[in-house]
Specification:
Elements lengths: L1 H32 L3 H15 L4 H20 L4 H22 L5 H24 L3 H14 L5 H12 L3 H13 L6 E8 L5 E4 L2 H10 L2 E9 L3 H14 L3 H14 L4 H23 L5 H31 L4 H13 L3 H10 L1
Antiparallel strand pairs: 1-2, 1-3
Length: 354
Amino acid sequence: MKTKFLTIIYFLFFSITSFSQKSEIKSAENEFKNGRLQQAINILNDAEYLIFNAEEADQSEFYNLKAKVLTGLAEKNIEQSKNIALAITAYQDLIAAEKASGKFKYSVFALEAIKKINDDLLNSALADIKAKRFAEGANKMHTIYLGNAKDTINLYYAASYYKDAKDYNNAIKLYEKLDILKFSGKALGYFAVNKNTGDDELFSSLSARDLSVKAGTHIKPRIEKMPSKKVEIYTNMAFIYLEKGDLDKSELYNNKVLEADPKDPNAYLNLAYLKIDAKKAVMDEMSNLGTSAKDMKTYDELIIKKDNLIKKAISYLEKGNVAIPSDQDIYKLLLNLYRSLDMTTEYNALKARI
């Protein structure tokens, strides 16, 4: 008897829940049809907890409607990047639900919608970059990446555009993620010429390029080997950390540049200048000291610290001079530092080589 009673309660609970799910979807659909997108998404967000235990068909209807509402909000420029990312996620949830059920009602449409969203976003991002709206372009490239995290080249472009926009917080966050993912960017690049603009455009994949060629919007397809972007990424990270005042991390990433390319002259120079800049801070501290016994002791300690910083700068430049003996900037700065520490033997030996 007790078991029968529990079965009845269980059946009633899920019947009521199912009715509530359908009712919420219907209400949201009515709001959507009447152009009240914000009201529609509010209903769907409030009802989302109900959908986890729903039948797959109801889940499919829910996510399809949610994706369309979010796309509509994005098209009205309401939190565009956020709503586009959420729309892609809703379509992906729809595909997962239909795959689980084995009943494919909206999956083909969802895949086409995701592709269209990404294509539109990419074109819009490229237009932003051409117009030097780097922050807007970066947001869109990041949204494309969030929709397909396997395509890390979009994360790289987002980071680069955030740097161009001087949004260093977002840029460094994405560059650090690229470093964790061990992204190099070394791959094949798929290019074709845009018939309208005459620009040689890079596509995210071979299939995307070939579709544009078949559609007649692009001509002259070609494939090019893309070099590693490690040096560029680490150089940018070193620069951003320098701008943020984190000299230790700037030094770390300049050293990573040299791990990737031991003959990068800028990395040697940057490392040397980091130590020279640190020396200036020590000299400022020295100039503020008095003449007490304690201050004089501190002064002597700071003299040693200052000289050690210059010696460290010299060590970087000496390595650079060995790696790239023809680089005049490294040569001239090294000569000046030898002279500043009265390193006459080293100074004369270096000068005699040129």
